[in-house]
From TrEMBL, chain A:
Lineage: superkingdom: Eukaryota
InterPro entries, sorted: 4_helix_cytokine-like_core (IPR009079), Leukemia_IF (IPR003624), Leukemia_IF/oncostatin (IPR001581)
Biological classification of the source: Eukaryota, Metazoa, Chordata, Craniata, Vertebrata
Signal peptide range in chain numbering: 1-19
Residues spanning the membrane: none
GO molecular-function terms, A-Z: cytokine activity; growth factor activity; leukemia inhibitory factor receptor binding
Major site of localization recorded for this protein: secreted
GO cellular component, one term: extracellular space
Gene3D superfamilies: 1.20.1250.10
Protein name per UniProt: Leukemia inhibitory factor
Role this protein plays: LIF has the capacity to induce terminal differentiation in leukemic cells. Its activities include the induction of hematopoietic differentiation in normal and myeloid leukemia cells, the induction of neuronal cell differentiation, and the stimulation of acute-phase protein synthesis in hepatocytes.
Automatic annotation (TrEMBL), chain B:
PANTHER family: INTERLEUKIN-27 RECEPTOR SUBUNIT ALPHA
Name of protein: Interleukin-6 receptor subunit beta
Annotated source species: Nyctiprogne leucopyga
Bilayer-crossing regions: 606-626
One example of a Gene Ontology biological process annotation: interleukin-6-mediated signaling pathway
Family annotation (CDD domains): FN3
Ranges in coiled-coil conformation: none
Topology with respect to the bilayer: Single-pass type I membrane protein
Gene: Il6st
Major location category of this protein: membrane
SUPFAM superfamilies: Fibronectin type III
Family: Belongs to the type I cytokine receptor family. Type 2 subfamily.
Family annotation (PROSITE patterns): FN3, HEMATOPO_REC_L_F2
Length: 205, 658
């Protein structure tokens, strides 16, 4: 449910894809009446929430995949094996740059989490807690994308952002699916912590 | 209707068919005749009769549109009913029905109002949102409500209420994104939308209450530590808390000052508790900044504080029995068990010390008992008695009672009582000297049981209190007030009292002590205290003859005899007696007596003179007879000559000579 706007794109591609998100047509920011002054604080809270829950999500994912993922995490879940959007901003970067980088990151994550959730529903249908957490994280990223869209449109008149989505896991073996998920989530834990650090001064009241 | 080849065709029809109309609006219906119908019976539009149910619509409302079309207009649909029929008078003035329709009348929906929403946390990750609204007036039509909601860039599927029209629950909402919510109402007559509500669902959360509450005692007897688990992640929402607690068995809750628990936490130490007391705790939470709703109170959990040493010594009193010998007393020492909040634990024993103050050596005797009384035989004298209560932790401060050799100090004055609000109040006038404390003794006065003394201490600065025992109504209590000084004791001043009086349970039994011709001395016994039920204020004696009026006489309550006078002699009287308290009287049994025919000495006054007179007459008679004895003799005993001395005797030779 968190990735409805993007799944269609992913199903058609087998290699890292790029796309244009922010399906904005026409002038003005859509829903601008809902894009209020509290959206900065809301964005900060969402990133903090994702940061606070990322490690638990990853640990639970590993546990539910069983062996060899639990014992050979370093070997199997090396994030260098998967595409992940660059997040080359820091606290001193321009706020606009940070927002755009955030948008690219979470658009990618939203799609990836959708993939992982789909795969886990197939591979581990009884892992209720894992599936609940994946759904919850996906929903949070979806909400985060909505807020970032608000901020980019309202503050910087940015209506379009190029987003790269990574390789789809569809058609891969069960092991590969698990591994890809593991790699993405491991990278996610690292990047979300970085995002929380970077975002804080930009979104503090 | 036309019949053609076995099929029945309608001669015309009405439009609109099955309309839905707004209440109070105007409505026009057209009855359109078929061409074939005209051929059949020369039926034209001007012959049409409109009817509502079986009532003909006035012709003023008709309009002939053309040869085959007739219309009827209703300015206010509230006058419409079902069915609306188009009819015609055929040959022979027979009314034939052409067509009929049913109309539905209703109202368009009103704008839904008072939209409000709340997010109930169902589990750690599940947050459904329930919105409620006022659906407005009844429309009499099938009206559908939808709860619509959207983000700035995304619309969500409508929430459709189930079985109700004023609430809908969205399965799960996302925090930290502004959500616009509104209600749309629609029926065939129109649609209406409520004012939108814009909110971040994080601001309307009712979280689940904290759970797994545990209560632990520590070292301090006045502290209990609470620990719990919060069911909402701190990353989602920081919480503040309310903690309430009560003593088990009590209904009144106390609360930890909210400002002390206004920040995120999973434990708290509650202070200021009573030692060795069981408390019940419960906790609730809400968003730290106060936006949203409080959770329900958690499940209650109990904990017991640890013991502490008793906070005060038990109150002591004594009953002295000097009846055996004035030089030797039997002293019954008694003390009251400490209240739980004074005992601070389980009292294991009492330590009693008795010191003779008159003794130069100052030696004392110690006793350890686990009851609340001790009986000692002591020589007459002044004693100081100390009692201390011991529990597992320590000893209470000592309670001291001075037992002087005599109660020579100033007593209280003017002891009086007042029953009020179900309590028996006792008041007195304090003596001029400083009083340490007062002891109020009381016992139930009864013929059937001993006067068992109860007592209580009161501070020396008061002049009134109420008896803190089980004081029963209609029972007589003997109350005594003793002032206790630092160096002695005043004599007790007593008064009898009732918490509540009633009329006596039986009346006095009256009987006669002595009955005369015109008076009778009545006598009776006082009622027993158990029979009185109150203070006897007066007696009344009622007496009457069989056919006479009843007479009443009041008698002082201290008396046990009364003389009725001016009675009629030789008459049967019935007498009874009533005893009165302040609450009423009760009559005793009837007693009958008959007054005497003669008064005292009356018979003697008659018999004696009669006897004397008789005696006099007899004496006089005897004297008279004595004087006239010769005459009497002559008449009664005439002399009869002796025949031997008769002449005839002398001349008869056969008669021997004498």
């Amino acid at each position: 449910t968190g990735v409805v706007p993007f799944v269609a794109l992913l199903l058609l591609q087998r290699r890292p894809v790029a796309g244009r998100a922010l399906l904005v047509t026409g002038s003005g920011c859509p829903g601008h009446s809902l894009c209020r002054s509290n959206v900065q604080e809301q964005t900060r809270r969402q990133v903090a929430l994702l940061n606070a829950t990322a490690q638990d999500l990853f640990s639970l994912y590993l546990k539910c995949q069983g062996e060899p993922f639990s014992s050979e995490t370093d070997k199997l879940c090396n994030p260098s094996g998967v595409f992940f959007p660059a997040f080359r901003v820091n606290r001193t970067s321009e706020r606009k740059e940070v927002m755009v980088a955030m948008y690219k990151l979470f658009a990618f994550l939203n799609a990836s989490l959708g993939n992982i959730t789909r795969d886990q529903e197939e591979l581990n249908p009884t892992a209720k807690e894992l599936l609940d957490r994946l759904h919850n994280t996906t929903k949070t990223t979806r909400g985060l994308i909505s807020n970032l869209t608000c901020l980019l449109c309202k503050n910087y008149n940015i209506f379009q952002v190029d987003v790269s989505y990574g390789e789809s896991s569809k058609g891969k073996s069960a092991f590969k699916k698990k591994q890809q998920g593991c790699q993405v989530l491991r990278k996610y834990v690292q990047v979300i912590a970085q995002a929380a650090r970077v975002l804080l001064p930009h979104l503090s009241p | 209707f036309l019949v053609s080849d076995g099929l029945v065709q309608s001669c015309g029809h009405i439009i609109p068919e099955s309309p839905v109309l707004a209440l109070g609006s105007s409505f026009t219906a057209l009855c359109i005749l078929n061409e074939s119908c005209l051929d059949f019976g020369n039926i034209y539009a001007n012959q049409i009769i409109w009817k509502i149910k079986n009532r003909v619509v006035p012709k003023e409302q008709y309009h002939e549109v053309n040869r085959t079309v007739s219309s009827v207009t209703f300015n206010d649909t509230s006058s419409l009913a079902n069915p609306l029929t188009c009819n015609v008078l055929a040959d022979g003035q027979i009314e034939q029905n052409i067509y009929g329709i049913t109309v539905t009348i209703g109202l368009p929906p009103e704008k839904p109002k008072n939209l409000s929403c709340i997010v109930h946390q169902l589990s750690k990750l599940t947050y459904p949102m329930t919105c409620t609204w006022n659906p407005g007036r009844h429309t009499f039509l099938d009206t559908h409500f939808r709860l619509k909601y959207r983000w700035p860039q995304e619309n969500f599927p409508d929430c459709i209420p189930k079985d109700v029209n004023n609430s809908c629950t969205i399965a799960d909402v996302q925090f930290f994104v502004n959500l616009e919510v509104w209600v749309e109402a629609a029926n065939v007559l129109g649609r209406a939308e409520s004012d939108p509500l814009v909110l971040d669902p994080i601001e309307i959360v009712k979280p689940l209450s904290p759970h797994n509450l545990s209560v632990n005692s520590g070292i301090l007897p006045t502290v209990l530590k609470l620990s719990w688990e919060n069911r909402i992640s701190a990353a989602v929402m920081k919480l503040k808390f309310n903690i309430r607690y009560r003593i088990i068995g009590d209904t009144k809750w106390m609360q930890v000052p909210p400002e002390d628990t206004a920040s995120p936490r999973t434990s708290f130490s509650v202070q200021g508790l009573r030692p060795y007391t069981e408390y019940v705790f419960s906790i609730r939470c809400m968003k730290e900044d106060g936006v949203g709703y409080w959770s329900d109170w958690s499940e209650e959990k109990t904990g017991v504080t640890t013991e502490d040493k008793p906070s005060k010594g038990p109150p002591i009193w004594r009953i002295i029995d000097a009846s055996r010998s004035p030089a030797s007393w039997t002293v019954h020492l008694m003390w009251k068990a400490l209240e739980p909040f004074e005992a601070n634990g389980v009292i294991l024993r009492y330590e009693v010390t008795v010191r003779a103050k008159s003794s130069l050596s100052g030696l004392s005797e110690k006793y350890n008992v686990n009851t609340t009384s001790l009986t000692l035989n002591l020589p007459n004298g002044t004693y100081e008695v100390t009692v201390m209560a011991h529990n597992r932790v320590g000893t209470s401060p000592p309670s001291v009672l001075l037992i002087p050799a005599s109660n020579s100090k100033a007593p209280v004055k003017n002891v009086r009582t007042l029953p009020k609000d179900g309590r028996l109040w006792v008041g007195w006038t304090a003596p001029n000297t400083y009083v340490l404390k007062y002891v109020i003794e009381w016992c139930l006065v009864s013929n059937s049981s001993d006067c068992i003394i109860e007592w209580q201490n009161e501070p020396g600065n008061i002049q009134g209190t109420y008896l803190k025992g089980d004081i029963k109504p209609f029972k007589c209590y003997l109350i005594t007030v003793y002032p206790l000084y630092a160096d002695g004791q005043g004599s007790g001043q007593s008064v009898k009292a009732y918490l509540q009086q009633d009329r006596p349970s039986k009346g006095p039994t009256v009987q006669t002590k002595k009955v005369g011709k015109a008076e009778a001395v009545l006598t009776w016994n006082h009622l027993t205290v158990d029979e009185q039920n109150g203070f006897i204020r007066s007696y009344t004696i009622f007496y009457k003859t069989v056919d006479g009026n009843e007479t009443a006489v009041s008698v002082d309550p201290s008396k046990t005899e009364y003389t009725l006078s001016s009675l009629t002699s030789d008459t049967l009287y019935t007498v009874r007696m009533m005893a009165y308290t302040d609450e009423g009287g009760r009559s005793g049994p009837d007693f009958t007596f008959t007054t005497q025919k003669f008064g005292k000495g009356e018979i003697e006054a008659i018999v004696v003179p009669v006897c004397l007179a008789f005696l006099l007459i007899v004496l006089l008679g005897v004297l008279f007879c004595f004087n006239k004895r010769d005459l009497i003799k002559k008449h009664i005993w005439p002399i009869v000559p002796d025949p031997s001395k008769s002449n005839i005797a002398q001349w008869s030779p056969q008669v021997p000579a004498k």
